Amino acid sequence: MTQDLLNTDPTTAAQAAAAELARRTGVAHHDVAIVLGSGWSPAVDLIGDQIADIAVADLPHFTASTVLGHSGRVRSVRVGDTRVLVFIGRTHYYEGHGVDAVAHAVRTAAAAGCKVLVLTNGCGGLNPQWAPGTPVLISDHINLTGVTPLRGATFIDLTDVYSPRLRTLCRELEPDLPEGVYAQFLGPQYETPAEIRMVRVMGGDLVGMSTVLEAIAAREAGLEVLGISLVTNLAAGMTGEPLDHRDVLAAGKAAAERMGQLLARVVAAL
Fold it and tell me: For this structure, is 191 an active site residue?
């Protein structure tokens, strides 16, 4: 059901998608939502017991994914007594559908009853100690896209957009998890070495093309947000090697078991 969101109220669109999601999954209320980014898709089978699996394009106002490694499906799973929505892939702003399309999955999750949102991504790392396959908790972000999912004079506090409580919980499960600041570029081109130097001066540790706009929309919706980046490559200019999306997917596949187990443990501990 690919539909234009430009002239649709985002809340109304999310409610319609949540109602259809409940009908198709047979689950009236979900508790947690997880968005799996580039390279994370193989982890989905390790998160919980599948209840239903559907194409997001079959839900109102969603668009089919156009990015390799993003299957464009949503799965309802059970982790103990917790009902979880797992979005296998996301809509990126660079795909040209508008910022509301980027935030639509987050808003749908909120309309479906979710109180916690876990955002994951594959990213470039600026810390040479973070080898490909290293998961990093997002402590804060830098929005370099020039856009926002908020409409009008909507003033949302982003002081603790990435929940300190959830980050502490993750470190209790895996004490060696590092933290870093994530910078979102517009994409789809990779960053230049000069842009990476700029991010380093700004205080950034991770770079990618997702997550930030979704996190802003999630805070507007009242969701508690956890962000986890998977370092899939060192950022441009750090190794002298060119960047390739296939390397991102390969690093995610190699780390899939650890990532799936980590997400399952986090959800079970909520």
Answer: yes
